[in-house]
Write a structure and sequence with these properties.
Length: 524
């Protein structure tokens, strides 16, 4: 980008001489404009930025030194070249008092002007580089401070605290003698389902920024994330309804065309690490309850598992088990619909719902183990707790259970092709976002997606044209190649960052894939 200069002289021909006597662009400059007196120059500089001002000392009205004096008082960071027809020491002395070091006599000596402009260009380049370096360092420090703050609060929220954490909380504005309320907020899972990993991250960041800005107006003392894409807002408790605060934040999100969110809150708590962790745990239980049953669900009205409800659910589970054993897959959907309909009507508490879901999953795992001739646990392990905390609502949990039972019965009729394709799409999405996980593989994915491993493997190959492990290997190898483009990256570091704990095994896989070892590729 070219630097800009302004010529100020009452003589038209002098202004033209300055503009034409040297090839300004080769020196990195472009003419921004010209002025015939101080007043014109000041009017021009109110709207335009320049890096260099070339001005005459003697002009009608206010002279050039007065322009320099005015601009220095306004802290205009520009260089000056003063032109004068008089070799006056007094003029030079006054100019130097304002930091002007370039004083040229008329008529203009082109060689001298070239040398002066080259020196000013070098000084401007140095200043620009210094400014870029300072900005980079400032951004790095800001990012490091933010990261340190996020990690600290994530540690406290998870209950991992030390004796010094109380003092650090106070430094961040959370004091033990004050009362607070904690809000947990996240984009609705349904609003993210049609987006890829990077787009989902952008939507979560946008929602977090809007929520943080809105909460700041409510006196928020801390806005951070919990490591799972959820926003955590800590606000002073003044007796207001937390639902009203959620309404304000939701309104701000809607006004900004932000993604729809679900939010929940804690009971009031004191600003100590243990109380903060407890408040987060309570808010997260409420949040999970709302994700499952709906954003307006009230956990205080959650239903307890009565004997009548338990008996009805047990009959449905027995019928589902029988249908699975008999291979009657047509019964899966209506039986699961009735089972989840009862849960939805009763709005079972999370603990009761987890117990009932575990019973359903146990049917699937027992059947899978019997079919494979093994014992429960040798195949994919399905967890009700993981399913409840995965961000699914009740309809999505029902869909996962239906897909699991259909996959176990090896049901592959066309009317269920959308379930199969969705499972494969979710598997590829998980691999793209979690390829660095050492456990990533068929069993890991089947457990996360609640589906038969053999069914997932067979349909993945059919739909994608390669095996699941071939797809994962390609992801890891291409990412490793990108990492090794950096000369500071070691082979061991690259291996770990793409999910390989053994650098030697990683090197063998890399050479098998690319035909060249990672170290040789890095050298080339």
């Amino acid at each position: 980008m070219l630097y800009r200069f302004l010529v100020v002289d009452d003589e038209y021909y002098v202004r033209q001489r300055v503009k034409l006597c040297i090839p300004w662009e080769k020196f990195g400059f472009a003419c921004a404009g010209e002025a015939e007196d101080v007043e014109q120059a000041l009017a021009f500089l109110q709207h335009e930025r320049v890096d260099l001002i070339i001005l005459d000392i003697s002009m009608p009205g206010r002279n050039g030194l007065e322009l320099v004096r005015t601009l220095c008082r306004q802290e205009l960071h520009a260089h000056f070249i003063i032109l004068s027809g008089f070799a006056s020491f007094e003029y030079a002395r006054q100019a130097m008092a304002f930091g002007v070091t370039h004083y040229l006599l008329k008529p203009i000596d082109v060689a001298e002007l070239r040398e002066t402009v080259a020196g000013i260009r070098e000084a401007l380049d140095n200043r620009r580089r210094s400014a870029v370096t300072e900005q980079t360092l400032l951004r790095a420090r800001t990012a490091a401070d933010r990261s340190m703050r996020e990690k600290f609060f994530q540690s406290v929220l998870s209950g991992h605290t030390s004796g010094e954490d109380g003092n650090r909380l106070r430094q961040y504005g959370v004091c033990p003698e004050e009362m607070y309320q904690l809000l947990v907020l996240a984009v609705r899972p349904a609003a993210l389902s049609s987006f890829g990993f990077e787009q989902r991250s952008s939507l979560r960041l946008a929602a977090h920024n809007i929520a943080s800005e809105t909460a700041a107006g409510l006196g928020c003392v801390c806005a951070c994330t919990d490591g799972q894409g959820r926003s955590v807002l800590i606000l002073p408790w003044r007796g207001e309804s937390p639902q009203d605060m959620i309404g304000l934040i939701s309104g701000a999100l809607q006004a900004s065309a932000g993604p729809p969110c679900i939010a929940a809150y804690s009971k009031p708590f004191g600003g100590t690490p243990s109380q903060l962790a407890g408040a987060y745990g309570g808010a997260m239980r409420f949040f999970t309850f709302r994700v499952i049953y709906g954003e307006k669900a009230d956990m205080t009205r959650a239903g307890h598992l009565t004997k009548r409800t338990q008996d009805i659910l047990q009959k449905k589970q027995n019928a589902l088990n029988l249908a699975l054993l008999q291979g009657d897959s047509q019964q899966f959907a209506p039986l699961l619909s009735d089972w989840f309909g009862m849960v939805r009507r009763e709005q079972l508490a999370l603990s009761a719902l987890e117990i009932q879901l575990s019973a359903l999953l146990s049917i699937a795992m027992t059947y899978s183990a019997e079919c494979s001739g093994g014992a429960p646990g040798e195949d994919a392990v399905y967890s009700a707790s993981v399913l409840l905390n995965a961000g699914y609502d009740l309809a999505q949990i029902e869909e996962h259970l239906l897909r699991l039972f259909l996959s176990l019965a090896d049901e592959s009729k066309n009317e269920n092709s959308s379930l199969i394709e969705k499972a494969v799409a979710q598997a590829t999405d998980l691999m793209r976002s979690e390829y660095a996980c050492p456990d990533m593989g068929l069993r890991y994915l089947a457990s996360r997606l609640v589906i038969s491993p053999a069914y997932l493997s067979r349909n993945f190959t059919r739909i994608c044209g390669m095996t699941l492990m071939q797809y994962l290997t390609r992801l890891r190898m291409e990412r490793a190649k990108e990492l090794l483009a950096s000369p500071d990256m070691t082979v061991a570091q690259a291996a770990e960052l793409v999910g390989y704990q053994d650098a030697f095994y990683f090197s063998k896989r890399f050479k098998s894939y690319f035909g060249i070892s990672p170290s040789r590729m890095q050298e080339s």
